[in-house]
Amino acid sequence: MRKIQNKWIRAAIPALLLHCSIGTVYCWSLVSESIAEYIGSSKGAVEWAFSIAIFFLGMSAAFLGNVVERDIHLSSLISTICFAVGMVGTGFFISQKSLIGIFICYGVIMGIGLGTGYLSPVKTLMLWFSDQKGLATGLAVAGFGLAKVIASPVMEFLQAKVGIVGMFYILAAVYFVLMFAGHLLLAKPEGWVESQEKTKGVSVLDIFKNRTFIGIWLMFYINITCGLVLISQEKSIVKALGMAGMVGLISSLTAVFNAGGRVGFSAWADKLKDRNTVYKAIFILSIVFNGLVIATKGIVNGYTLIVIPLLFVINAGYGGGFSNVPTLLSDHFGMKSISRIHGLVLSAWAFAGLTGNQLAVWIVNRVGSFVDDGHGNMVNPVGYQTVLIVTCVLYVIALIISCTLVSKKKEVEKV
Question: Is 28 within 8 Å of 50 (Cβ atoms)?
Answer without folding.
Answer: yes
